[in-house]
Amino acid sequence: MTAAYVALEGGHVIEGRGRSPGTARGELVFTTAYTGYEESLTDPSYEEQVLTFSYPLIGNYGVREERFEDDRVHPRAALAKEFTDEVVAWLESEGVPAVDHLDTREIVTDIRDGGAMKCGIAVGEDVTEEDALEQLEQCKTMSEHTDIGAQVSVEEPVVHGADNAGPDVALVDCGAKGSIVDSLLARDATVHVLPYDASEADVDAIDPDVLFISNGPGDPANYEEAISLVRAFVEDTPVAGICLGQQIVAEALGGTTEKMAFGHRGVNQPVLDLESGRVVMTTQNHGYTVDDPGDHLEVTQINVNDDTPEGLDGLEYDVITRQYHPEANPGPEDTLDFFDDVLAMVPAQKTTAVPADD
């Protein structure tokens, strides 16, 4: 059996079965999702993290590229009770270490009790515990990854749906999932994907009907350019955001954000809409949250489990954000109408699309 070691912050080392070789380090997190492993492994929001699957068998319906959210695997390593050979072959082709035969229940409990933590991984024929501990020593916190956006963003602007008749959306790519773009295209929007550090001139060149800040990894305070864009355009242009995008919008408009103990990662997070009283199930993947929305935003939705803000609306500006993933890949489709609400902020003469039949 190929040796595999997982060194946890504090020095505890767990031994498992090595499935895909290599060394890695990152923030150790877990997801409670029981499906959607392809989407999770290709979600850019997992950049610089080590992903633990709490569901015991990962890979039981194969690997299909059409389910990918990006063109590569983003977690630095993956842990599970058991990986199928097909998933292992995929991770090995991507150069991503994988370890199974682990008691993932204990790992999840450790994270829930102690919070997301740094870890080091070593997998291979000749690796030792010291190799994993060496990786742990070199591991940074998520806030220390000050330019993480460069690892997950497009380098140059990309246009999708150029022939569509609906609104022009400037999507600031801080690590956008492909299904966000697909959801906007399905509503006949033209989506102009911009780098995470796009300038005001880049946005002005588009003259968008909506400025949309995407999901992504890391500390929202480190996305200074995106924060500046929201401040520059919010008075004249509708602004939307998903996940990290909600946090960036809050930072831009005088609110504050904070690191969560272990975050929300899964496809069964209950969210309460404060106006309607309706509870919806949502897909989530984030380690930071809005602490105080400030004076320009109001909290419209909260997480049923811990009361953290899940939806923000602008008080004097056209702003709508969600902490969860309305595009629902993977997960429940309770909140797909968010994209209709975003495009409804555009003046009627610019909105020619019919809401998508999802």
UniProtKB/TrEMBL annotation:
PROSITE patterns: GATASE_TYPE_1. CDD domains: GATase1_CPSase. Pathway: Pyrimidine metabolism; UMP biosynthesis via de novo pathway; (S)-dihydroorotate from bicarbonate: step 1/3; Amino-acid biosynthesis; L-arginine biosynthesis; carbamoyl phosphate from bicarbonate: step 1/1. Keywords: Amino-acid biosynthesis, Arginine biosynthesis, ATP-binding, Glutamine amidotransferase, Ligase, Nucleotide-binding, Pyrimidine biosynthesis. Residues 2-122 form the Carbamoyl-phosphate synthase small subunit N-terminal domain. Composed of two chains; the small (or glutamine) chain promotes the hydrolysis of glutamine to ammonia, which is used by the large (or ammonia) chain to synthesize carbamoyl phosphate. Tetramer of heterodimers (alpha,beta)4. Belongs to the CarA family. This is Carbamoyl phosphate synthase small chain. It catalyses: hydrogencarbonate + L-glutamine + 2 ATP + H2O = carbamoyl phosphate + L-glutamate + 2 ADP + phosphate + 2 H(+); L-glutamine + H2O = L-glutamate + NH4(+). L-glutamine binds at S45, G216, G218, L244, Q247, N285, G287, Y288. Small subunit of the glutamine-dependent carbamoyl phosphate synthetase (CPSase). CPSase catalyzes the formation of carbamoyl phosphate from the ammonia moiety of glutamine, carbonate, and phosphate donated by ATP, constituting the first step of 2 biosynthetic pathways, one leading to arginine and/or urea and the other to pyrimidine nucleotides. The small subunit (glutamine amidotransferase) binds and cleaves glutamine to supply the large subunit with the substrate ammonia. SMART domains: CPSase_sm_chain. The active site is at C243, H325, E327. It comes from the Archaea. Its EC number is 6.3.5.5. One of its GO terms (molecular function) is glutaminase activity. Residues 1-167 are annotated as: CPSase. NCBIfam families: CPSaseIIsmall (TIGR01368), PRK12838.1 (NF009475).
